[in-house]
Amino acid sequence: MKYDYLRIEKKWQDIWDDECIFRAEVEPDKPKFYALIEFPYPSGNGLHVGHARPYTALDILSRKRKREGYNVLFPMGWDAFGLPTENYAIANKVHPADVTRENVAKFKSQCKLLGYSFDWDREINTTEPEYYKWTQWIFLKLFEHGLAYKAKMPVNWCTSCKCVLANEEVVDGVCERCGADVERREKSQWMLKITAYAQKLLDGLKDVDYPERVKLQQENWIGRSEGAEVDFNTDAGDVLKVFTTRPDTLFGATYMVLSPEHPYLKKWSDRLNNYEEICEYARQAAHKSDFERSELNKDKTGVRLDGVSAINPVNNELIPIYVSDYVLMTYGTGAIMAVPGHDTRDWEFAKKFDLPIVEVVAGGDVSIEPYLDTETGTMVNSGFLNGMEVPEAKKAIIERLSELGLGTPMVNYKLRDWVFSRQRYWGEPIPIINCPKCGHVPLREEDLPLVLPDVDSYELTDSGESPLSQIREWVEVECPKCGGPAERETDTMPQWAGSSWYFLRYTDPHNTEELASQKAMDYWMPVDWYNGGMEHTTLHLLYSRFWHHFLYDIGVVSTKEPYKKRTSHGMILGDGGEKMSKSRGNVINPNDIVREYGADTMRLYIMFIGDFEKAAAWSSTAVKGCKRFLDRIWNLYGQLENSEKISKANETEIHKTIKKVTGDIEELKFNTAIASMMSLLNKFQDNGATKGDYSILLQLLNPFAPHITEELWQMLGHDGLLSATPWPAYDEEKTKDERITFAIQVNGKLRSTVELDADSTNDEIVEAAKRDEKVQRFIADKSIVKTIVVPGKLVNLIAK
RNA sequence: GCGGGUAUGGCGGAAUUGGCAGACGCGCCAGACUUAGGAUCUGGUGUUUCACGACGUGCAGGUUCAAGUCCUGUUACCCGCACCA
Asked: Which of A64, A80, A401, A681 is most buried (CB neighbours < 10 A)?
């Protein structure tokens, strides 16, 4: 009989569906396993092989865990709000909801084609009101707790599209879509105060099992720095605060710099003799995009404030103040004390403006270049700090500043608040009413969901407002508080919103009363294993952790961290090792592979392609190797010995393979797991195999290639589904060979091998080694001064 | 500039963490079956040498009986962040 993969795969997919074998229910006395993949954005291109890699990996893990007796939750859904759908809708004059429906259907059928064991009863979609009701509810909670606020923010403004862009949409300083210049504009935006959770998000990393590189990337993104806030009095009679990580270098602070957006510039306008010049500089700085401001950093620019100076608190020296765009308003206090002797940027600036450069940590020659190796070192030119080591000086100066009331220890973070507004249609409406009298008034909970209204045109408005602002009958409402005329917020939420809590909804997706029941969340949460792409490490992963910490703080969820373990897969590249893209024409569609080789081959190859965590290039020829493997499995069926027993000849290899596959799946080493099953098949072909031998191989291969193995399992005459049989166990004793081939080295070089009983004594091994013909040639005229025996491995004879 | 990572045959990649480098697969070579083969099966395949052997994990040193693995230095490439005080 021929291996008719298309017939077989359809047959078993229908059976799994009919028998609902992957449906998950709360079973309190069974250990649970919640496996999560990042739900996809259902784009018009359909599922591509890049999706198949992580989905197949966790499908394998889930199927295995299920057979090990775990109660497995492996759900799937759609992160369906977002720009591409909206743009497609604009271009083709269709409703984004219709586009979404079509794309979801396509994605779903593709997932089914690949035989994934998703529990489809728990399918969710972020664009459905039943779902986004709860996204809005969480927003209201954040608002209620002061973590959502509206603020004027500089935003990225595309001069051609006339709309606000997210940071991610600005690539190399230009608009990702149209290539036009992007400039900064002040705009009122909804913000989420993720900075309030900076320390918690940092601390939480200690309790989770994430790859080190993911933790490091999150730590760097949060960017905690310890230092001090120092007050500089000015001759204008007020106090200029700065943040510094190096208060010990205060004696070297020979000038100060304000960011062009610093409020003191305006405050001091009367005293500044060159206020016009300063304003002009600030205007130019504002016109520069972030990109320009950082790219064109070779040349430091700035203007001295003529009319105000600061007083260095440790030596009471009068020092000049400058404005320069190398100081950012968004970090620290927007003002710095400049220590040109020990900071590259300050040094460059001081050189250009001919400012004094003072060495305060001994070591370099600050007239030639800044001396930066100052984590340790001795203080000089620093008054009472002279002679102290750096760490000691840090303590001493903070103490002194505290006594003077001019400074306190301070921690700063690079993390900034989350810009939560989008002036777009296809997103969750923000459930706020703007009342001229009462300000921002939240919708009442019972008025949720605030349903996205239909609109005639999704085109953006000239003013950069959301298309929602065009629907006056939707916008104009009564204020829930005072009953007066008010307007709805017309901004929508970013795509990150729906994905920040979706894993909670999976635990109880049809609940109409709560985002999920306490019982369901208590049982299923936290997610045991979350796999996703490295590109989501700093945004999605951080955002969702933030929401979860918040939900924990208000008592909605019972764990601080949402994900116990996180792993990341590498990208799938095109045949030549380049990124797959339509323009290169190297995109592989999984449907084509399924049609030509079958889903089992597709699954097997995508796992065999290489190290799961690293990028891998697709190879059209290598796919065939996996098909060949399945063909050979299929063909072996006709040559089996009719015995249910495990054959003696294969027993050791079988136990070794069970051990290898069992362990490798848990470590995501799918490529070597498959290699070991290929080896076992080779063994079977050499030695012959019984039905018992063969059954074990089918059981191991089942999570990887679930369809063909079910079919062969049935052909063998077994009752019931293979997918429901227990995972095979191995006997450690039986993984050990009775005979072992020992390597024999002379002076560390391999000269021969000898096969001996595994329980041979060291003496016996050494004797056998010395007797070996080839070895004799190398030791004949020498005496052996030392022998080293590595049990079960090798002998090394040291001869002189 | 800062942070992280990678480097092994013609190719994708293995190597129980210091113990036979190149598992497994692709490709290639030879043979078998065949009217035919881009199907299948069998054998071979790191380089070099007629052979014994010698050499071989980006490069240069070192530690060790023994190094792809540990240490020091160095180069190239990839990813993330980037004037963060």
From this structure: A80
Residue A762 Cβ under 7 A from any strand B atom: no
For residue A752, say whether its CB is under 7 Å from any atom of strand B. Answer: no
The DSSP element (H or E) to which A50 belongs, if any, is helix A49-67
DSSP structure string for A759-772: T--HHHHHHHHHH-
Question: CA-to-C1' distance for A701 and B73, Å?
Answer: 47
In eight-state DSSP terms, residue A76 is -
Give chain B positions with protein CB within 7 A. 3-5, 11-16, 19-21, 23-27, 40-42, 53-54, 65-67, 79-85
For A206, A748, A773, A777, A795, the CA distances from A800, given in Å and listed in that order, are: 54, 13, 18, 13, 16
Task: Work out the angle at residue A128's Cα, subtended by the Cα atoms of residues A114 and A164, and round it to the nearest 5 degrees.
Answer: 100
Residue found by looking up tokens 């005293």 in the block: A271
- HSE (side-chain half, CA atoms, 13 Å) at A310: 27
Phi-psi region of A72 (alpha: psi -120 to 50; beta: other; left: phi over 0): beta
Grouping H, G, I as helix, E, B as strand and the rest as coil, residue A124 is strand
Residue with tokens 């369901």: A520
Cβ(A590)–Cβ(A572) below 8 Å: no
Measuring from the CA of residue A620 to each C1' atom, give the nucleotide at the shortest distance.
B26
Element (H, E) at A687: helix A670-687
Q: Which of A353, A307, A345 is nearest to A327 (CA)?
A: A345
Q: Which residues of A310-338 are buried (b: 16+ CB within 10 A; e: fewer)?
A: bbbbbeeeebbbbbbbbbebebbbbbbbb
What was the pLDDT predicted at A289? 57
In this structure, which amino acid lies at residue A87?
A: N
Confidence at residue A752, expressed as pLDDT on a 0 to 100 scale: 86
Q: Other CB atoms closer than 10 Å to residue A440's CB: what's the count?
A: 15
CA A675 to C1' B46, whole Å: 21
Burial of A735 (C-beta count, 10 Å sphere; 0-12/13-18/19+): middle
Strand B proximal to A628 Cβ, under 7 A: yes
Whole-angstrom Cα distance, residue A14 to residue A27?
26
Mean pLDDT, 10 residues at a time, over chain A (800 residues)? 91 95 93 97 91 96 97 97 87 91 96 97 97 98 97 77 67 68 80 95 94 92 94 94 96 96 94 95 77 61 95 94 93 95 93 95 90 90 94 94 94 92 92 95 94 81 78 93 94 94 98 96 97 91 96 96 95 83 84 95 95 91 94 93 92 95 95 96 93 96 97 95 95 88 88 84 84 80 84 86
Say yes or no: Cβ of A678 under 7 A from any atom of strand B: yes
Q: In sequence order, what are the residues at sequence separation of 6 or more whose Cβ sits closer than 8 angstroms to the Cβ of residue A243?
A: A227, A228, A229, A230, A331, A332, A333, A336, A410, A412
Taking CA atoms, A759 is separated from A10, A730, A744, in Å, by 51, 21, 17
Q: How far is CA A531 from CA A71, A166, A276, A518, A545, in A?
A: 19, 25, 55, 25, 15
Tokens of A669: 């080493």
A599-608 and A590-597 are packed helices; what angle lies between their axes, rounded to 10 degrees? 120
Among the listed residues A482, A395, A488, the one whose alpha carbon sits nearest the alpha carbon of residue A433: A488
Q: How far is CA A184 from CA A117, A330, A335, in A?
A: 47, 14, 21
Q: Please name the residue that has the structure tokens 């939240």.
A: A442
- For residue A595, the model assigns a pLDDT of 94
